[in-house]
Design brief:
Blueprint lengths: L1 E2 L12 E5 L6 E5 L1 H10 L18 H15 L5 E3 L3 E3 L4 E10 L2 E13 L5 E7 L13 H15 L8 H4 E11 L2 E2 L2 E2 L7 E11 L13 H20 L6 E7 L5 E4 L8 H4 L1
Antiparallel strand pairs: 1-2, 2-3, 3-8, 4-6, 5-6, 6-7, 7-8, 9-12, 10-11, 12-13, 13-14
Length: 275
């Protein structure tokens, strides 16, 4: 729905967009997109060169923190949402704050709130909320080592026979504990009725071809170039190996060890037909 009126924070913006949760008045999405586009145009945005915007210097993180926390106080966020370090996007000219939902120290996979403001002047630009999970037990009876072992066993069974002995050389794995929705695989709905939350080991595998890629939050020019070359080599190796899985995911209930979901993989007898 669209309303042409000042918002509850006293800012007179031309349009406010609300997405309301059914049977309630909870605001899930708020966007001042028009004012953002107007400000962006003011600083030289051109459709044919969208990256060339001469934004003014962004305010310090400490100042941005005060503004987003002031907005959060008015939104009355649930107490189990934990503020993360703010993210600065100099290309878009904004600061964004994200609060992840946690229970007993474990993060929910999807439940979070984000607030974005103009990086130089602090106008409230966007608010997004996902809060669908439920309170659940956080008992961990399955170790990370056990979750990884079970995951490797399942991954190997999905690969063509000739690649199975090389699985540990061709793939890398990582595991993390997250509270997930039993009817979701990440953000993809699963065809089951239950919507209970569960603490789970999310085990991810990704094809490396045995080629290491430098991962850095702020890479140097040399690291960036080396990473690009390594990624190109990975792609070449992936084609050379017959285009096996690029990635694979399996989820185990941290309490019972039961499987909560996996990536879709073709049965082995259909593998050749899929090539």
């Amino acid at each position: 729905m669209t309303f042409e009126k000042p918002n509850e924070f006293g800012q007179k913006f031309p349009e406010i967009y609300f997405v309301l949760k059914p049977l309630s008045e909870e605001i899930k999405v708020y966007s001042n997109r028009d004012i953002y586009l107007e400000i962006r145009k003011k600083y030289g945005y051109k459709a044919w060169n969208s990256n060339d915007v001469n934004w003014p210097p962004l305010m310090p993180e400490s100042e941005a923190n005060k503004i987003v926390n002031s907005i959060a106080a008015k939104l009355r966020l649930p107490a189990d949402l934990i503020l993360q370090p703010l993210k600065k996007d100099e290309k878009k000219g904004i600061w964004t704050a994200i609060w992840w939902r946690e229970l007993n120290g474990y993060s929910y996979e999807n439940d979070r709130v984000s607030v974005s403001i103009m990086g130089a002047t602090g106008e409230f630009i966007e608010y997004l909320k996902t809060y669908e999970g439920s309170v659940c037990p956080t008992v961990v009876n399955i170790s990370e080592e056990e979750a990884l072992k079970r995951g490797w066993d399942r991954l190997v069974k999905t690969l063509p026979g000739k690649l199975r002995p090389q699985a540990s050389e061709l793939f890398a794995a990582k595991a993390a504990l997250r509270i997930v929705q039993s009817n979701m695989l990440g953000r993809v709905p699963l065809p089951i009725k239950s919507k209970n939350s569960r603490l789970a080991w999310i085990v991810n595998f990704y094809f490396t071809g045995g080629i290491e890629v430098i991962e850095s939050e702020h890479p140097t020019e040399a690291e960036w170039e080396a990473s690009g070359m390594a990624l190109d080599e990975r792609v070449r190796k992936w084609h050379e190996m017959g285009k096996p899985l690029r990635s694979y995911e399996v989820r185990y209930d941290a309490d019972t060890g039961g499987i909560l979901g996996t990536s879709f993989v073709l049965p082995s007898f259909l593998w050749k037909l899929a090539k």
